Every structure is written in structure tokens, then in C-alpha cells.
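In this supplementary section we document a worked example of the pipeline. Step one takes a protein sequence of length 316 as its only input; no multiple sequence alignment statistics are reported here. Step two produces a three-dimensional model, which step three serialises into C-alpha cells for compact storage. The input and output of this example are shown verbatim.
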Amino acid sequence: MTADVLLPQLTAKAGAVAHRDSGPCGCAAGPVTLADRPDATVVRHAGTVAKAHAPDTDPAGLALRLATAARLGDVLLAPVERTAITVGDRLVTFWPYGSPVDPDDPDAAPWEAVATLLARLHRAPAPTPAPPMRGPAKAARALTRMRGALAGADHPAARPVLRAWAGLPGWARGEAPMPGTGTLCHGDLHLGQLVRHPAPEGPWRLIDVDDLGVGVPGWDLARPAAWYACGLLPPDEWTRFLGAYRTAGGPAVPPDGDPWAALDVPARALTVQTAALAITKALAADRPLDEVEQAVVDACARMGSVPPELSHGFPT
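The serialised model returned by step three reads:
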């Protein structure tokens, strides 16, 4: 279903759910499109958000993820509806609106809040049956997209990314089962997956259950770990995040000491994923990599000097 067909239908569904119990719409502001990508289209109407999931979304897996979000409403934002509907070829879910993290105020980033929520998620019982956490599959998809954008051409920035990817174990590339897959994980953790509900000052909750499932909990710490290892996250912010996770009893890392035995492989995988997406976007825009994008590519180049099993953070 194309965006010009999907968006009006999704907007109408969001409005119907938003005003189901309050009669005709008297909103001062109309619906707002929050995202419109091939893998997700998201529309807000008043206090309701409608999300059209990727066309290849598994209905059974999404149902389990919705039930888990409803059950863990003190960690995950609970859906308005516990079942998805179908709009054209897309599964659609409905959520209450929450206030996101302010991207223009990085100093106010709620690292302690997200770390505490993660620890509680990782300690929560997983559903039975449980879908796998989709983080490695998402990383593999990023590499596929980069290869498609390259169209067989040799690109100097892609070489270290492909070498770093090849050096990862099969489970981190989505090619083998994840080890110790009994922990409930988010699968795509970053600050954009955090909102306050009720808006604007309610408690923080994690959002986006598309990649939720059982897997390696270190994957959920891997993006801030990678940013820290690449020099993109200040050491004090990394320390706040890691310390809060440990204080909350998070099982992904030991309670004290060096955390990198558990985090190195996931952090490498997230760095490769980020670099691959950066190259794909730069190629599409026919522009050079910016400073941050080049930093993650440079980190991929450094990975080749030390194998994961010997590393304690990326080599500098």
C-alpha cells in the first residue's frame, strides 16, 4: 500500500479511536504524521497514535508483543487496543500519545530512567511462547540495504564496515541462534524509544515493540556502549547509564567490574549497523559522510585490529 493511500486511512482510524468515547472531534489541531517510512507509518490524532507496521510483520509475533506491553505497563507503554487491525496490507496498532525526549536538550537525556526501565524489562518473565529479539536481524537488514545502495561498486567507507561485519559471530549477524535466549529484551533501544505518559510529565515508558523478544540483554545496552566506544557519548553519561542499570539489578553485565566481556560483540554489531545505515543515507543523498558518520566508520576500521574475545572496548 502506497503512502498516499495508507496515510488517509490511518489518519481516519486514529481519529475514530481517539474520539470513540467522546463523540465528534473538536480538536483545535488536526492529525500529525510522526513518521512515514517503508517500515513504519505513524500518525497522531489528539491523544491517540496509530502505527502501521512493516508489510512483512508477523501477526502472531506482533500479538505476543502487544500482550507483553499490556502486561508490563510499568515498563512498556501499554497499547490502547490489545489487538492489531488490518488496513490494506498493513497491521495497525493504537497507542496513547507520550512526550518524547527533547532532541535539542541532550544534557537532559534521561539515562538513569532508561537504564532502570531496561533492567526491569530484563528481569521480567518472558511470554511463552516468545518471539526472538530482532536486533541481529535488524543489523543484517542494514547491511543488506548498504550492499543494495552500493550496487556492486567499491566504496572506501564500506570496506571497513564489511570487514567488521564479517568478524562478528554468526548470532550477532542473525545467522545463528542467540546464546542464552531466556531474557526479555527491547531489541532496538535508543533515546527515541522513550516517552513520558501521561504527557507531558508522566513517568518514562519504553515504546516500539516491533523488535521485542527473548535474546542477549547486552544488545539493549549496545547502542550507548558503542557511542561511548566511538567517542560520541561522554564518559560521564555512559557511567550514569551503566551505573543506573547495575543499581537496578540489570542482568546483562556483572554487578561490578569490567562490563565489556558482555557488551563488546553487541556494541560492535550496533556500530556496524549504524555505519551501514550512514553510508546508505549518504549514497542516497549523493553527499560525503558527516563527522559523526565518519566516526562510526572509523570505529569499524579499528575493530579489525583486536578480535571481540580479546577486546575491552574498541581499540583507540
